[in-house]
Structure formats: C-alpha cells, structure tokens
Amino acid sequence: GNEMITVEDGILKIDGYNATELAKEYGTPLYVMSESQIVKNFTRYVEAFKEYTEKTGKEFIVGYAYKANSNLAITRLLSKLGCGADVVSGGELYTAKLSNVPSEKIVFNGNCKTKDEIIMGIEANIRSFNVDSISELILINETAKEMGKVANVAFRINPNVNPKTHPKISTGLKKNKFGLDVESGIAMKAIKMAKDMENVNIVGVHCHIGSQLTDITPFIEETRKVMDFVVELKKEGIKIKDVNLGGGLGIPYDKNTEIPTQKDLANAIINTMMEYKDKIELPNLILEPGRSLVATAGVLLGKVHHIKETPVAKWIMVDAGMNDMMRPAMYDAYHEITPCIIRNENKKEVVNIAGGLCESSDVFGKDRELPKIEVNDIVAILDVGAYGISMANNYNARGRPRMILTSEKGVYIIRERETYADLLSKDIVPNYLL
Ligand code: LLP
Fold first, then answer.
1. Is 359 among the annotated ligand-binding positions?
2. Binding site annotation covers 371?
C-alpha cells in the first residue's frame, strides 16, 4: 500500500511532509512521488526473487517498464538501486541511457519497432530486442547486417492465457495484437528462421499477459507455457539463456481488495520454474514490472476551486483533470481519493470529484463517502505513480503538472510545470497568416 502516507490529527502527510503545505508551496495540480516507497517496492522484488539465484545460480533481473513513469529522476533512482529497463521506444531507450542503465540490463519491447529504433538498440548493445513478429525479425537481422553487428533477440510469444484483468490492458490472448502465436507454430517458425540468420543471436523467450493482475494463477499458467516452449526449443537444438515473464503484478487501488505480494509472485514463479529443472538448464529470469514499482508511490494533489450541488449530486471541482491523469476516464479505473485535511472522520457526505475539462468523463470519483470538503481544500488522488504523468497530455490547452520527489534529503522538483508558452512552442503559423 501507500506506506509513505500517514494521517496525524487529521492532517495528511507524505513521507512526513504536510500535503496541504506541499500544495501551497509548489502549486496545484501537483504530482508527489515518494522515494521511500519506490525503494521499498523495488527491494521487495529483489528480496523475494533472491531464492531463484540461490537455487539455480542464474541471474534475476528487474527491468523497470519505463512506460509506467519515465521521469528522469525516477529512472535514475531505480537505476542507482541496480534496476534495469524495459523500453518500448527510442525515447525510452534514450532515457535509459541517460539513467546509466548498463546495456546488459536493457530490453526493448513493442510491436512496431522502427528501423531507427533498431539501429539505436544495436548501437547500445542491449540485452535483447523482444521480437514481436517475423517481419520485425527480418528487419533486425538486415539492420544488424548493414551495421556489421549481431543483435540479441528474444521472442515474445503469445501464450493465449487469460489474465483476468481489464480488457484494455490484457495482452496475451490470441485476439490481442502482441506476440508470436505458439499453438499454430508461428513462434517456432520465427525462431527457426532466426537460427539460420547470421546477424541475430537468439537469447531468450519473452511473454507478457497483461497489467494489473490481481490473481497469481495466470502467472503460473504463463510460466508453464513459456517453459514448455523452452523445452520444445531444446529439442530443436536451440538453447535459451533468458526467460522474461513480463510485468503485470497489480496493486491495491481499492484498499479492501487483497492483492498478491512480490513474495507470492516469487513463490509461484520459482516453484513453477523448478518443475523444469530436470528437463533443461534453467535460464536467467527477467521481470518487467512497471505499476507495482511506482504506482503506490505517487499522489496527485488538486485544489478545490468550486463546489456545486445539482438535484442529484454534490460535485467537488478540482484543478487536476483527466489530462493530468487519464486512468479513470480511459479505463473507469478506481483511485482512492481523500481530502488532505480530515475535519471529522465520523461526519461524511457523498460527493463526486471532478476535474475541470470539458468532458463528462473527466471525473476522478463518483459517489465517494468522504469527510467534509470545503473550497480551497487540497484533495489527494492516490496510486497515480504509474501511468499518471506518463499518459498525461495537453487537452484543453492545459500544461502538464509539476512533479516533486519527497526524500530523506528533502523535497525536490523533478519535473517543471508546463507554461502557456510551452504549449504553443511546437506550433508554426504559415507566413501568409502572420
Ligand atoms: N512489459 C510489457 C511488454 C508491457 O506491455 C507492460 C505494460 C509491462 C511490461 C508493464 O506492466 P505492469 O507491470 O506495469 O503491469 N496504461 C495502463 C497500463 C498499460 C500497460 C501496458 N503494458 C493503465 O494505466 O492501467
């Protein structure tokens, strides 16, 4: 959960800092990221999977999925802790390099890598391109050949496993666009093709079945599908060095639901991997968590500017909006919301909390039972550290918010608020309109 949040005498604090004061000092809307929480989340992965290395002598690598939040301070913090990177674009690869992530801890995902991105990845000598199609494999081989290099490739398989999550964030079903189908033999065909190519080096099998998984069983199913395939490959004389099981561990957005921990995940994956120890030499294990590393560490603070009553509801209007954090509008996602001054825990009222954009879907929470909120109060939207700022946009000509980091050393601005001038900085008016 959100271990960095405490409430003392009705005052909400983040890493010990009074949230209302932070909002006053740094302005709203404001993203607050907690260093202590990120460190905890990362360390739990390392601790939980230590056993894999102890049992097998093989590596365990966490490649943080940059898409969750690619702010440079966050990626540097994780890199400093020893975390690798899962990148899905030239921009993310650029960020990983600026974050000093060693090349052997960078993997490149995505279903439409461009030639320019492939060149960048080969130049960076990354651990693997996770190949999503035969077409991509051919382009990687050709590009590496032109460069006089050999590219490391892993193959993203589509295992047809139901992750039991929101349809918009499930990826490992036959109907999804991702991966090479195993059942029909396409995945095997691709790897056999790669075996005959001179400029690719087969290193791994990759899989990712979806995000915000709240049940361990799909991970076990996924691990089996991947490992069964690795056994098939051995029969063909192809040795797999790395198995990458993707990301996907969920977080408790709703504080009443129980979510498996990193330890639960580790137990399930390690036990399943061990079932194969007599069949093959076990591979290095890579995971690419995004959400479970940073989501709980982030809070979005918005200031209440207006309160309005309609015949059917009471609306709390805040200056944060769907452009800052689009998960509720896009996925009907639930995020816990709380005022930062809790006046009376026992006297609650039912309210809707909305942003100020001209869209009916710009609502952060409906029918929430909250302590009394007044104009000028600060409201906190929790668990926004992942897929918050990274999916923010400028809709309604709103600058993206400032982001600060709370750490033991103090409070730091880690992303500046966009100005009106920033908003127009890429627009060009043709001469005849000047
Ligand atoms: N690896 C691959 C190949 C992925 O596609 C993803 C996420 C991850 C790793 C990281 O998954 P995580 O550990 O964060 O679940 N915008 C959506 C989430 C989209 C996830 C896309 N892929 C949301 O806000 O819920």
1. yes
2. no
